[in-house]
Amino acid sequence: MKIVMAVIKPFKLEEVRDALTAVGVHGLTVTEVKGYGRQKGHTEIYRGAEYAVSFLPKIKLEIAVADADVTRAIEAICTAARTGQIGDGKIFVSDIEHAVRIRTGETDDAAI
Length: 112
Description:
It is a single chain. With 112 residues, the protein is of the alpha+beta class. The chain has a single domain (2-111), classed as Alpha-Beta Plaits, CATH 3.30.70.120. Helices cover 20% and strands 37% of the residues. It is built from two helices and six strands; from the N terminus they run βαββββαβ. It has helices at residues 13-22, 70-81, and strands spanning 2-8, 29-35, 42-46, 49-53, 56-65, 89-95. The strands form two sheets. It has a four-stranded antiparallel sheet, covered by helices on one side. It has a two-stranded antiparallel sheet with strand order 3-4. Helix 1 (13-22) packs antiparallel against helix 2 (70-81). The radius of gyration is 17 Å and the shape is elongated. It starts with a strand and ends in a 17-residue tail after the last strand. One of its GO terms (molecular function) is enzyme regulator activity. Homotrimer. InterPro entries: N-reg_PII, N-reg_PII-like_a/b, N-reg_PII/ATP_PRibTrfase_C, N-reg_PII_CS, N-reg_PII_urydylation_site. Belongs to the P(II) protein family. Keywords: Nitrogen fixation, Nucleotide-binding, Phosphoprotein, Transcription, Transcription regulation.
């Protein structure tokens, strides 16, 4: 089992969710986060004054998937989240040692 963590632009959330559902990946956790990468934020003008926005709003997705579904999940996220502009995001994949569904007590792949 793996956990796929993706940081994407907020307006791409629905497209990514639809793409994951289409490839058979169900269930994800969404968190609103702020951060920056290579773009290091940007400047905006508010009431005539210029100010720097150091941390940009992003969406962090966490998806627990079986090992066999990792590649499909990553491809679906990349296709749906890509705009071709800087700041499209990143995907990280980590191992999950153990998972338990609280309601039924199912473990590991059955819990996903």
